[in-house]
Amino acid sequence: xxxxxxxMDAESLVKxxxxxxxxxxxxEALRExxxxxxxxxxxxxxxxxxxxxxxxxxxxxxxxETQKATVKIEADLTAAKQELDKFVExxxxxxxxxxxxxxxxxxxxxxxxxxxxxQDALSRGxxxxxxxxxxxxxxxxxxxxxxxxxxxQNRNALKEWGLYDPANMLGTTSTILGGSExxxxxxIAFSPMLQTDNGAELLTRSTVNKYINSLIxxxxxxxxxxxxxxxxxxxxxxxxxxxxxxxxxxxxxxxxILADIGETARKxxxxxxxxxxxxxxxxxFMPTEADYAPIIEGREAIAEEQRKxxxxxxxxxxxxxxxxxxxxxLDNILKTLNQAKVDSQTADxxxxxxxxxxxxxxxxxxxxxxxxxxxxxxxxxxxxxxxxNNGGVxxxxxxxxxxxxxxSQIATQEAIMKENQRLYDETGDVSYLQSxxxxxxxxxxxxxxxxxxxxxxxxxxxxxxxxxxxxLENKANEV
Length: 479
Prior knowledge:
This protein is 70% helix and 8% strand. The longest helix is centred in the first third of the chain and has 52 residues, at 57-108. The chain has 18 helices and eleven strands. It has four domains: 10-61; 75-96 and 289-357; 112-285, no CATH class; 360-478.
């Protein structure tokens, strides 16, 4: 064996010389392709992952190109992740702020104002969940808060309605101011509070009269000859339809102020006030779907951006894999891909949860109704004890109070049935049907125990009230 002065045998020296020449050829090829703009880090990364025995200039240059593209992909993904994190942080901050608003409302749900408004409506046997009267929805109203400015601006209208009382009105809020009046011997219920793009506006009595008379003249214009009250009553649907469309009166567009027409109008005019007060209190103290809207919008935006980022990482990984990127680069991108998938799934889950909370927000309202019923039940406990001690004799006053309570409980259970049916229709979740059945059972149990003072007076067994109350509470826990 011939050994050279380097200590290497001739064959090894020849191989080493060939490798050095190969390296020189590669360096020349790199300089020819990239000039002085050579990323030696990329070159070294490819070199350490290449078997010297398989070193070939053209393939090496292709490998450098792939690695260079892969490095750019990794850099782009890093930048994209940084932008995504900034967006998520900003959006989550907005979501947290809105969640704080909802939490504050929930904390006030047991306030005296809400309880008093609820009790006022329930004591009259009204269904606070039924907020729609004709063309008026008491749950979606712009209110007028009475301060010195609004009292001054509306003083003429308030005086016409006989409502101007600054001392007692200051600091209060109005949403309906509902009432009814006779037009051509036909009672019509309405709200003089016009809803506009710039907030609620209290119409004067003369403007409301002119508007309703104009509605009547329009719908009766095609009636031949004389017409009577019953003819006008037959046109009720036309009156509601024209009111929904509206008319120009005194230079302003008036619409959607009619609530009821005919023999029930006077009662409707009174009911709107109390149900409107509950709706106002509920909007202030109970979270609504509108409160959840900003949260859902934020969750949708985050979910969309997470999906886009995941797709970007997936495309980058596929490119790197298909073009022979190094195992180290593939491993790095794969880790990023897996995390992006988890983050995207989490964002989708958060969105679904927010949508579910929004859909079920009205159930919190109904639970508040039930809590008010429980409060009524507790208030009756001492009276029941007195009755039992008195041989089970029920006074007329207590019988009337119990009857009102039972009817309002039935109204609430029916509202719960309606709301859960709506949620089932939207989601297909059978648990809502179970709540419908529970509420129906509770309502039936209360009906069977009697819903009039006469029924209750006839049944001197006060224990039946306890059965009804217990049944309601048990079913309420299932809602």
